[in-house]
Backbone:
């Protein structure tokens, strides 16, 4: 059963985690460089669209748990973006150090996804009806596309 923005967020989570897993399974520098840039663009577009469309609305909720979830998610996005920027600057994406950074990124993203899909989705379903979730889904896809076009 489609749930608008929640379905889109879940699909993005799966895609980004798959790209990270493919990066971890690859040792060759140029392949890692290509996969990393692809993953980074998708992850940042997702995060910025999610903040713009979903988190800003949840931050205005009467429910302190919904607001707290949105603020925590925003902070997690900042940590993930900092990790991505550090990894982008690295010259050797086949090094042990870079691989360790990738493992930390995987853990950050994995934790964020678990928290969002287990708790955030529940908050969103309480906050928005099915029609609103569908509208938010369309907004999210439009904003994500705008982010991807600007990348």
Residues:
């Amino acid at each position: 059963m489609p749930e608008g923005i929640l379905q889109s967020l879940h699909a993005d989570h799966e895609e980004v985690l798959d790209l990270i897993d493919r990066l971890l399974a690859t040792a060759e520098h140029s392949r890692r460089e290509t996969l990393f840039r692809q993953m980074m663009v998708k992850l940042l577009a997702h995060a910025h669209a999610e903040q713009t469309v979903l988190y800003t609305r949840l931050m205005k909720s009467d429910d302190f748990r919904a607001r707290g979830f949105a603020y925590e998610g925003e902070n997690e996005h900042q940590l993930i973006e900092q990790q991505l920027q550090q990894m982008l600057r690295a010259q050797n994406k086949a090094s042990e150090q870079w691989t360790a950074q990738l493992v930390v990124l995987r853990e950050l993203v994995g934790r964020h996804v678990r928290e969002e899909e287990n708790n955030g989705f529940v908050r969103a379903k309480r906050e928005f009806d099915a029609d609103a979730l569908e509208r938010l889904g369309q907004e999210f896809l439009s904003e994500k596309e705008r982010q991807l076009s600007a990348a």
Summary: The two ends are 32 Å apart (CA to CA). DSSP finds five helices and no strands in the chain.
